[in-house]
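Researcher: Please predict.
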Amino acid sequence: MTMNLLERSLIEKAGYENGWENVIDSREGSVVLASARHRARVRILLRPAEKGWIVEVPPGLLLQELIRSLPESGCPDGKIVAGDMDELVRLLYRTARLAVSLAALTYSVRVQDALNQTGIDTTEVQRLVKQRIGQDTFREALMDYWVGACAVTGIALPDILRASHAKPWADCESDEERLDVFNGFLLCANLDALFDRGLITFDDAGYLMCSLRLSPEHRRGLHLSEGLKLRWITSSHIPYLVWHRERVFRQGDR
């Protein structure tokens, strides 16, 4: 079964608006969608001899949860059926939300395992363990999203790359916000230090902004050339960048 260009475009649009902003593959036979917020992928194909689509989800906990929560949509082989575009939209949204929730669950399990190993479960130990594992999880997500290279320079040297939060860990209101791949950037160590201390930030187009505390000599020494910018930026980055510019960035010379 094949899909025409219009059908594939409609599926891509439905995915983008419902938690699947990355199109991995789009051809006559199928559309494969993914997201930076989680590691799940879905493959959408036309339903043979009937109206609608089949949504393929890799075997595992996500598929199990989908079949459990949507029993009326399950096929005998474990694939999910969407009879029309409205059903496909609901299914894509539900799958994306479940994938994000399961990612947070994995983080919670890692935290609990670490606490069990320490044998100490005080409030302070919980805080330190959550922050350490959260930073590791956040870095793993950013390494995936930025394909192992600095978000500005493109340097692919993991030893010097840091996971920089735009809205700091302590100021986030939830674990989902702390672990959101759009709440920060994978940066070389020098850019990470400057970003963390509010000496640089980025505008909504991704261009570097420097604090007045950085003199022309500082900028030259740090190779902060005019026109330096993020390799790409999405609308999901913007709220966090606004927060960083308003709360962290030190525009003046004090």
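Model: The longest strand covers residues 41-46.
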